[in-house]
Design a protein that fits this description.
By secondary structure, this protein is α+β, with helices and mostly antiparallel strands. The protein has 9 helices and 15 strands.
Length: 327
């Protein structure tokens, strides 16, 4: 029959449900229409009839019948949307600091949310729609940053890469370094913070607090810190490394040391004896500086460093921190 396609299943698609495979390759195909094509035997795998929950394997051949102009246009649309042609695509291009066939790494600006929420009209996950590949696959988030935290954000380009990168984060086979400007100076030049954190609702949204071991819903949180440079007893430039990945972990741990991060509206308790330094922007001074993570293909590691955002560069210059250390 004219218009019939035969498509092979890729290695990255091992074990994928057939309905999800179609959603990835043909996003314009309605679920009801897919079911009808399956029931009538027009869609087959290696020549045999299949159901929507059939798991596909690499090398299998899927018979694709003619599906109408709407579905075809939707499937081909990603190929027509070249990077940079939309406002979202242009912004992602400016944020991109590393790419290979399996991975994107972005330098996320402060103020841009990673995922949607109430009152958010723009976020990274939605912006990634503009970078679907030729198969119609949308790049996948594998970790998150707080909305006001800038810096390194790793995104998988394929399903298989997403599984490998998610596993690396879950098994803590990553090294993430953050830079922060904090009030005061920690009691030690370096050390480890180990606490239990629990989420509690407030009028200003959810907030994490340090609690005792055994409190219902509490999670263990561990962070390492090191003083890079200090400005007297007033301010410190810290290197922070989270071992666990709890919500707001570094922000809570900095405040727990009585060294809250400048510009942190949730965890910087007002101190009438301390004035916010003049000339600095009242924005969160926390930046995901670098990451080291195993490459999804194995055998090597991805190591990426992100330049600081302008409001932090401004503060560093105002204080007079060593410029060579910033490179």
């Amino acid at each position: 029959m004219a218009g019939v396609e035969q498509r092979k299943v890729d290695e990255d698609e091992t074990g994928m449900r057939l309905d999800r495979w179609f959603k990835s390759h043909y996003p314009g195909l309605a679920f009801g229409k897919l079911q009808k094509l399956l029931r009538s035997g027009q869609i087959r795998v290696d020549g045999g009839r299949v159901k929507s929950d059939t798991r596909v394997q690499p090398g299998q051949v899927i018979r694709i019948p003619p599906m109408g102009t709407d579905e075809k246009d939707a499937a081909e649309d990603p190929e027509k949307r070249h990077r940079g042609q939309s406002a979202d695509g242009e912004m992602l291009s400016k944020m991109l600091i590393y790419e290979d066939p399996k991975v994107f790494v972005f330098n996320k600006p402060s103020g841009l949310a990673v995922q949607g929420g109430s009152g958010l009209s723009r976020h990274v996950d939605q912006m990634l729609e503009s970078w679907r590949n030729k198969k119609g696959e949308k790049p996948r988030l594998v970790h998150r940053l707080d909305r006001d935290t800038s810096g390194v954000l790793v995104v998988a380009r394929t399903r298989g890469a997403a599984q490998a990168l998610t596993k690396a984060f879950r098994e803590r086979d990553t090294k993430k370094i953050y830079w922060a400007l904090v009030k005061g100076v920690p009691a030690r030049p370096e050390g480890r913070i180990s606490t239990w954190l629990v989420k509690e609702p407030t009028e200003d949204g959810d907030r994490m607090r340090v609690c005792a071991h055994g409190v219902k819903g509490a999670d263990h949180a561990v962070s390492n810190f090191r003083i890079i440079e200090r400005a007297g007893q007033d301010l410190s430039w810290l290197e922070l490394e989270p071992y666990t990945g709890r919500t707001h972990q570094l922000r809570v741990h900095a405040a727990y040391m009585d060294c809250p991060i400048l510009g942190d509206s949730k965890y910087f308790e007002e101190d009438h004896n301390w004035d916010f330094p003049g000339g600095m922007q009242k924005r969160l001074h926390l930046h995901a500086r670098s990451i080291s993570i195993p490459h999804p293909d194995g055998g090597s590691r991805i190591e990426v460093t992100a330049p600081m955002p302008q409001h932090m560069v401004q503060s560093w210059n105002l204080i007079g921190f060593d410029k060579e250390l910033q490179e």
